[in-house]
Specification:
With 143 residues, the chain is mostly helical. The chain has one domain: Winged helix-like DNA-binding domain superfamily/Winged helix DNA-binding domain (Arc Repressor Mutant, subunit A, Orthogonal Bundle), CATH 1.10.10. Helices cover 52% and strands 6% of the residues. The chain contains 7 helices and 2 strands; from the N terminus they run H-H-H-E-E-H-H-H-H. The protein has a two-stranded antiparallel sheet. Helix 1 crosses helix 3, helix 1 crosses helix 4 and helix 1 packs across helix 7. The radius of gyration is 17 Å and the shape is elongated. The model has no long low-confidence stretch (mean pLDDT 91).
Length: 143
Amino acid sequence: MLSNTSKYAIRALIYLELYSSPEKKEGIKNIAGELDIPSPFLGKILQVLVKQQLLGSTKGPHGGFYLKKPAIDITIMEVIDIMDGRDSFDSCVIRTTPCDDSRPCSLHHKLGPLRRKIKTIFSTETIADLASEFREGRELIRI
């Protein structure tokens, strides 16, 4: 459902919430290695997040990335909006043209409630919520 770009951005934000601070920045090579994300691709993602003011970054020997915006204020939907937009939530799964309640496709009324529920979840779940799953040991797989 989500692009790799959005998935990688969410994972990187969780990682930074868990392991960084303005005083303890994380380098891109370390983040990429820990999350098994190609470093050049991650670099582009992190720069977008810096530009959007979710992350801060500094250069130099003690440089790296850290959350600039509190994790509790970063929703999953905000990350998706920044990285990919909402097309995957709003576009028709059958047609190449939009469908809506007045001109529905054959799946529109079945998928509509599911899409609304997913949007609600992604709009209310935050990076802090996801990071807490790791802190509490509920999430046993790698970020």
